[in-house]
Amino acid sequence: MTLIYNIGIALYSFLIGLVSPFNQKAKLLKNGRKESLKLLKSISLQGPVVWIHAASLGEFEQGRPIIEALKKDYPQYKVVLTFFSPSGYEVRKNYDLADYVFYLPADTKRNAKKLIDAINSEKVFFIKYEFWYHYLNALKRKNIPVYGVSMIFREKQSFFQWYGGWFKKMLNCFAKFYVQDETSGQLLSGIGVENYSVAGDTRFDRVRDIAKASAEIDLVDRFVGDCNKVIVAGSTWAPDEDILLEYLEKEGQDVKLVIAPHEIHESHIKQIESKLSVPYFRYTKQVENITDCRVLIIDTIGMLSSIYKYGQVAYIGGGFGVGIHNTLEAATYSMPVFFGPNYKKFREARDLIEVGGGFSIQNGSEFQIGMGQLWADEEYLKDASLKAGQYVNKMCGATRKIMDEVF
Fold first, then answer.
1. Tens digit of pLDDT for each residue in 122-157?
2. What 3 state SS string does 27-60 have?
3. Is 24 in the same domain as 136?
4. How far apart are alpha carbons 167 and 25 in whole angstroms?
5. Do 188 and 77 share a structural domain?
6. What does pTM read for this prediction?
7. How many independent structural domains does the chain possess?
8. Domain residue limits at 266
9. 157 with 275, same domain?
């Protein structure tokens, strides 16, 4: 199995190099890994070091509360942050709380030794799904504890199959797993792995902290005015936008919409505008009669988490594609969330539906019915809002639990 794994790693690296002239992400990954290996020759860290590895941006957001708590409580520690994916590294390569940020070199025995010797970390955190055979084994040989943060396990994973012996060896390299739910713990226990704790998901701590520090946005405040029927739609794609704009045209005569599309390039913004027959404006192109407009298009990034607080109901995009985006950023403000049918891989979405703070729709008609029920019954809206907020608050605390145990 180790030979097959090594061949797979080598083949993947070869294919990345092969397609890099034609694919931007592959090019970034190839060049980034090369730069990482150069960096390891000159890296210099004084004092104790913690290494945190995240696959991409979503996993980084789960590891971020750990980094922030670490820098606050134990500022003597240096932080090395690595990414597997360009979509994580390219966004957070200048993250100011990390002393070094770079791509994780390919998982070979040689690379693992180089990295671990260079950073000489005292503790290591792997976030959610990360399992790299050579890195984990090299860390175990050097008696460096590895902690799995916000990890979630599923029955179909290789660890739990009849052929899973080799994969289980990677689990034995961890000092402790901090899993998201009881099901993950039971799966580990079922194969004799008992060094776990059900801590929850550190993302809940992250969204709570974001909400507490959210900025006031004067333009959005003026647009909303005294309207008490405001929908904030985040990370939307074309199918989501069609549903929202159709609803606004047919049913939402006294409703205002703030829409923050996932893609903000000019052609997509113009596509949204072409579907609108009600007064609207872009965030970056203000108009005089802001309060008369029915739609505000957010055509810039980094604002969505602060904008949710201006609405009564949230719509989360992506549910008619590969999967929904972040529901927690909205729910933390105690607002019910709507999303499309492709949500089942996302535990928090399933939980929000179960507690009554989330609603999945199959089409525009279902969205119109759902919104109509909320607007028509003030107590129903208030109850759904309360349940969404209570769910997030109840799930907070994973970061503190991990920090108290590990440090």
1. 999 999 989 999 999 999 999 999 999 999 999 999
2. HHHHHHHHHHHHHHCCCCCCCCEEEEEECCHHHH
3. yes
4. 28
5. yes
6. 0.82
7. 2
8. 217-392
9. no
